[in-house]
Prior knowledge:
Layout: E1 12-13, E2 37-40, E3 44-59, E4 62-64, E5 67-69, E6 80-84, E7 87-88, H1 92-100, E8 107-113, E9 116-122, E10 125-126, E11 133-134, E12 137-152, E13 157-160, E14 176-190, E15 199-216, E16 219-224, E17 234-235, E18 245-252, E19 257-267, E20 278-282, H2 285-291, E21 302-305, E22 308-317, E23 320-328
Antiparallel strand pairs: 1-15, 2-12, 2-17, 3-6, 3-12, 3-14, 4-5, 6-7, 6-8, 8-9, 10-11, 12-13, 13-16, 14-15, 15-16, 18-19, 18-21, 19-20, 20-23, 21-22, 22-23
Amino acid sequence: xxxxxxxxxxxxxxxxxxxxxxxxxxxxxxxxxxxxxxxxxxxxxxxxxxxxxxxxxxxxxxxxxxxxxxxxxxxxxxxxxxxxxxxxxxxxxxxxxxxxxxxxxxxxxxxxxxxxxxxxxxxxxxxxxxxxxxxxxxxxxxxxxxxxxxxxxxxxxxxxxxxxxxxxxxxxxxxxxxxxxxxxxxxxxxxxxxxxxxxxxxxxxxxxxxxxxxxxxxxxxxxxxxxxxxxxxxxxxxxxxxxxxxxxxxxxxxxxxxxxxxxxxxxxxxxxxxxxxxxxxxxxxxxxxxxxxxxxxxxxxxxxxxxxxxxxxxxxxxxxxxxxxxxxxxxxxxx
Length: 335
């Protein structure tokens, strides 16, 4: 079985955003580190991030002269290959070339497994049909998902999501070398229910409209190639201005980008950055009728208070989709 690069373009893209699942740059100490004002986002984009290595999606077998052989006793679904014999590998093609071009001798794979680095010695099998050496695993070197842009600077630099994109198969932090963003069409919304978070379903469209520089604990940051503002500039607030009471989020759930009313239930005092700083409740009947509250894919929707951007939606509470968390805009700083 050949090592295979799995296609990720033009598939349904959903970014999982929940209270039980979600590094990193030095956070800003206040919102003035961004700029005095920015353009509000609130619209979704599709993202394809390049893994610095490759994630194992499936451990299969190699058809050898002696029968089917497998490395399932050593390798696991979700392992991320980052090095072979101490040399860094950047993508699927590099890994395939090294394995197939070798002589079948034992090699040492450096893996990220469950967030920890491990080294595993394996011996490739020779495939009877091709005569090439194989590991019998399917690998992938991209992560794809949909999230919401929080703000855009005048020069096209943006911040989005308010937290890191985590690969759903690896289930942990894996190295990212960059990525691209695309426009997307929302094709439906699954309403959130108790213990069943909803989701925005979308498809990627067209060519890349921007690039991703960093995937951090406090957001995804990059640059639009050509950005034309659709909203008036907004000032940035600080965490010291956030108080319980009425506020708004700017988001899109398939009917264009709109402002929806929310309640700030609690604003946590934070001296260190965290994606969970502000507890909110969706109160706008229009949004509740469409989505049931906060759903996967709304992460990054700007939180507005007194006309200022003070945060961004990051999580939904699984046991009550009308509630969730937002990050203070103070902590969202691009590189």
